[in-house]
Amino acid sequence: MAFDIYDFTSLTSSIHEGLATFLPPVGVLVAEWLLVGISVLLFVAVFGLILVYLERKVCALFQQRLGPMRVGKWGLLQTVADFIKLLMKELITPNKADKFLYNLAPFIVIIVTFMAIAAIPFAKGLQAIDFDIGVLYVSAVASLGVIGILLAGWSSNNKYSLIGAMRSGAQIISYELSVGLSLITMIILAGSMQISEIIQAQSTGWFIFTGHIPAIIAFIVFLIAGTAETNRGPFDLAEAESELTAGFHTEYSGIKFAFFFLAEYVNLFIVSAMATVLFLGGWMPFHVGSFEGFNAVMDFVPPIFWFFGKVMFVIFVIMWFKWTFPRLRIDQILTLEWKYLLPINLLNILLMTLIVLMGWHF
Amino acid sequence: MNNELMFFMLSAVILVFSVLTVTTRKILRAAVYLLFVLVATAGLYFQLNYNFLAAVQLTVYAGGIVVLIIFSILLTSHISERAPIASAARAALAALVTVAGAILTLITVMQFTFRPAGIPPISPNVKNVGRALVSYGTDGYALPFEAISILLLAAMIGAIVVARKESNNQSTK
Amino acid sequence: MASESLILFFITAVVLVGSALIFSNLVPPKSANPAKFEPYECGIETYGETWLQYTVGYYIFAILFLIFDVEAVFLFPWATIVRETGMTAFIEILIFFTILGLGLLYAWKKHALKWE
Q1: I need a labelling partner for C53 at 20 to 30 A (CA). Which of A2, A14, B5, B22 fits?
Q2: CA dist., res. C95 & res. C73, Å (int)
Q3: Is A166 within 8 Å of A247 (Cβ atoms)?
Q4: Neighbours of A130 (CB within 10 A)
Q5: In this model, does residue B45 exceed pLDDT 60?
């Protein structure tokens, strides 16, 4: 492989050996845990702040405004200032709430996002856990997030919260099916669920090109369902500001509110990362057939930049959805899922199976 | 961290929250404690390296059944009321039955001699699961696989018949 | 071992949320005003009970979701071995989908997929 210099396996193993020279085995384990834990925390915090800033800038772009401009150069420090403000706010627990569940809900949504990040491949060798069930693991863990939302809405003892949570629950579980079935479509093509193997299978070409028609259908379905899974517009009727104040997190204040906000953006990242892994080749560089010179130039860009470049592209498309389409009603959302996406997905799986068995893919 | 410590920690979580599930007086909290039990069970499967079963446990039980339970709790009236405290006689009877059941189970388990299986273990890799699922030889599961679709069909029709009837009654009220 | 890394990510998340909650409970200024702890609804005092019986519509979709979720779980291992099994896999899944499709068709005809 041409890009072995960018392989993170050697880096991680050299860190491991370096630590092992002056620490006992238990010390090595603790040091590595601290290292991984702190880097994951930093990644989530920094990436979350960047995404919130980007969202506001993208929104401003579509509405022909400038967006945040005052705090720092081009408003770059705006989200940092917002974060400090939220951290310094008093935590309010409504007196009619179920206090245990009310405090448990932010824990559940954040734990779920962290567990899902564990299986995201940032670059070759830079992945915490490489399961044989990788893709299924991410979708299984992510499916627990809905419980946090339902508990948050119910325990607040607020009518807006409860209505928002119920709508959100029905929407998330419905679209989870479409996410799962479009994942299955791509697993048929890849022949594996292990994330590293799926990416390796795309070294000759990204699945969205090699799988052509069924892959493109699955990609569109995945983007729609993924947007709905993360409760983002046009599927944001769970927190429809104009009718439900803020939906399931109406009663949450200060840093607890910030955790729901953060979880939404980290989930956006997870959905985009899964789209990147399954359709856009993960951290694989862009190659054109046997065009050697071009391919060599592409290999020169480190995989981590490829990965984040593609993720940012998918995130931009999903933000584009939010600021372009009007919000759907609950009956329209359920009709779209159960009468259109689900049958299309089932037929698409059959089509993909036929294409793979007949060898009609590239 | 060694395997045994993990096993005892997960078992402790399962035991404590199982007891809390049946003893709490708030119905939605019971559902949440049940969620913890199911997730800890998935942790045990991960511990055994049976990742596929763990993921199934998370998707179907923790992410599916618990959500269904929460929705069905919200369907009942009197959610906010606490369950009444059982009378002393009933509590004593329940404790007696539980202890008797536990003793019976323990005696059975203690008396049984566990023999290692004669056949070599199959790796629980998900591809092996898939191969067993589609093969129709002596150790294949192709027929059960198809039979599941009929079971799911029956479940779907049953659910629709029951739930729709209920909603018709509501609309006539 | 994979499960140990899982515990690591679990602990990291708990530490993040827990430490932030402790910080926010200790440091920020507090002011006591009884109205602050009322439900945030529309300005006047909240009317009636919030935890009431809810519409059955959500329940039907939850059951349909569960059924298709179980189906998807069986498809995952099947999907990984389509390439090596060949036509057998296709025929088996065709039968599987036909039977399940009947169920979806039944739900559609009974208007169970319609929101009300």
Answers
A1: B22
A2: 17
A3: no
A4: 14
A5: yes
Say which residue the tokens 């925390």 belong to: A41
The pLDDT score that the predictor gives to residue A336 is 87
B-C interface: how many C-beta pairs under 8 angstroms? 144
Contact of C32 with chain B, judged by CB distance below 8 Å, is answered with no
Query: Which two three-digit tokens encode residue A305?
Result: 């930049």
The letter for the amino acid at A219 is F
Poorest-confidence range of A231-245, B142-156, C89-103?
A: A231-245
Best residue of B48, B59, B122, B125 to probe chain A, by most A CBs closer than 10 Å: B59
Judge contact between A60 and A319, C-beta under 8 A: no
Structural fold of domain C2-109: Methane Monooxygenase Hydroxylase; Chain G, domain 1 (1.20.58)
Count of domains observed in chain B: 3
Is there a contact between C80 and A184 if contact means CB atoms under 8 Å apart? no
Burial of A362 (0-12, 13-18, 19+ CB in 10 A): exposed
For residue range A285-300, list pLDDT tens digits in order.
877 767 777 777 777 7
Option in C62, C80, C81 nearest B68 (CB): C62
* CA–CA distance, A30 with A44 (Å, rounded to integer): 21
Contacts of B129 in chain C (CB under 8 A): 77
What are the domain boundaries of chain A? 91-358
Domain that holds residue B89: 84-114
Q: How far apart are CA A309 and CA C13, in angstroms?
A: 26
Q: Find chains touching chain A: ≥3 CB pairs under 8 Å.
A: B, C
Q: Does any CB of chain A come closer than 8 Å to the CB of residue B52?
A: yes
pLDDT single digits (tens) A122-141 = 877 777 777 888 889 898 88
Q: What is the pLDDT confidence band of residue A27, given thresholds at 50, 70 and 90?
A: confident
Looking at the structure, tell me whether residues B97 and B29 fall in a common domain: no
**A126 pairs with which residues across the strands?**
A123
- Cβ within 8 Å, pair A193-B28: no
Sign of the CA dihedral running C26, C28, C32, C33: negative
Query: Does B1 lie in the same domain as B77?
Result: yes
Question: B58 contacts in A (CB within 8 Å)?
Answer: 140-141, 143-144
Q: Please say whether the beta carbons of A8 and A124 come within 8 A.
A: yes
Residue A164 in contact with residue A153, Cβ under 8 Å?
yes
Per-residue pLDDT of A93-118, as tens digits, reads: 887 778 888 888 889 999 999 888 88
The backbone torsions φ and ψ at residue A188, rounded to the nearest 5 degrees and listed phi first, read: -60, -45
The pLDDT tens digits for B116-131 are 777 777 777 888 888 8
Nearest to B134 among C3, C52, C78 (CB): C78
Looking at CA atoms only, how far is residue C86 from chain B in angstroms?
10
ipTM score assigned to the predicted complex? 0.85
Residue A175: closest C-alpha in chain C: C65
pTM assigned to the model = 0.88
Q: Quickly list H helices, A88-144.
A: 99-117, 134-142
Residues B132-149 pLDDT 10s: 887 877 777 888 888 888
Instruction: Return the structure tokens found at A165.
Output: 């949570």
What CA–CA distance (Å, rounded) separates A43 from A49? 10
Residue A234: pLDDT band by 50, 70, 90 thresholds?
Answer: confident
